[in-house]
Amino acid sequence: MWYDYTDLAFSPYNEYRRQMRRICVVELLSAKNVKSFGSIRQDEVSILIKSIKTLLMFLSGCRQMGSSSFPSLTTTSKLSSLCMQDMFSAGKETSSSAIDWAMAELMRNPRVMEKVQREVRECLKGKEKDIDVKGLKYLKLVVKETLRLHPPIPVMISVWAMGMDPETFQPERFENSCIDFLGSSFEYLPFGAGRRICPGVNFGLASVELSLAQILYHFDWSLPPGISFPDVDLTEQEGITVSRKNHLFLLPTLYINPSH
Ligand code: HEM
Known about the structure:
The structure is a single chain. This protein is mainly alpha-helical and 260 residues long. It has one domain: CATH 1.10.630.10. The chain has helices at 2-5, 15-28, 31-36, 38-64, 84-108, 110-124, 137-149, 201-218; strands at residues 74-75, 219-222, 236-237, 243-244, 249-254. Strands 1-5-2 form a 3-stranded antiparallel β-sheet. Strand 3 and strand 4 (243-244) form a beta hairpin. Helix 4 (38-64) packs parallel to helix 8 and helix 6 packs antiparallel against helix 7. The longest helix is centred in the first third of the chain and has 27 residues, at 38-64. The chain is globular, with a radius of gyration of 19 Å. Bound molecules: protoporphyrin IX containing FE. Protoporphyrin IX containing FE binds at residues 8-9, 21, 24, 29, 86-87, 90-91, 94-95, 98, 147, 152-153, 155, 190-192, 196, 198-200, 203-204, 208. Heme binds at residue 198. It is found in: Membrane.
């Protein structure tokens, strides 16, 4: 499995593994490197937003021409796309699954959706091209809460065991809390802890936060006719990464910034 256990995630603890991990943490995924990839991240997310806009224009053109033969739904699942192999498998599925879960929870919780969208639109007004997610405090809480309820890689201890009403999606629980992603709060370990802690924490969070901010900024999202928000399906797919079992079908409506 995985090149005879020579990749980082599955290799035994030895000098080789130590070196691999060092390369990942210091050379590939350091905070400095993650920051330096910012413009690439921005370009990639812009391509995603542009493709949803193009699809919307195409579908509204089809509807105006009276054609009913084109699908009117898009899916956030479709929006998603020895060391390097780890980076791709450990990095891509976890991040896209986190975005998918976040959108599902936001659709189930209109109060939170309204609040996070208001923040994103107020903070990013006029800065859509050069986005800095630093000021998006509530969005960060939404991501944190998503990773609490739906950790893409559940570690060996129960990461669901956090305090009271664990089933409720309530980002405010992290407000003024010192619980972080660094593996020191044992009731909250979406990135693991100790010497196995995910080396892609910064990279993962940067991708999830930026993608989510853009998706929420540019579109209003609604559920297909006949589905109401408590019915959004949260069934999990079994696997190394816990993704949603069924596609999340959502209808986007283009948001036009009133000041433009
Ligand atoms: C939201 C995004 C992500 C989450 C929630 C996540 C979560 C995790 C968790 C819980 C582990 C530890 C599993 C264990 O205890 O053995 C892990 C390991 C790992 N992650 Fe991530 N991850 C994410 C994104 C990324 C990204 C973006 C990359 C790289 C680009 C990455 C690369 C890795 C690697 C290489 C390991 C294995 C580390 C080792 O065994 O020493 N992850 N991840």
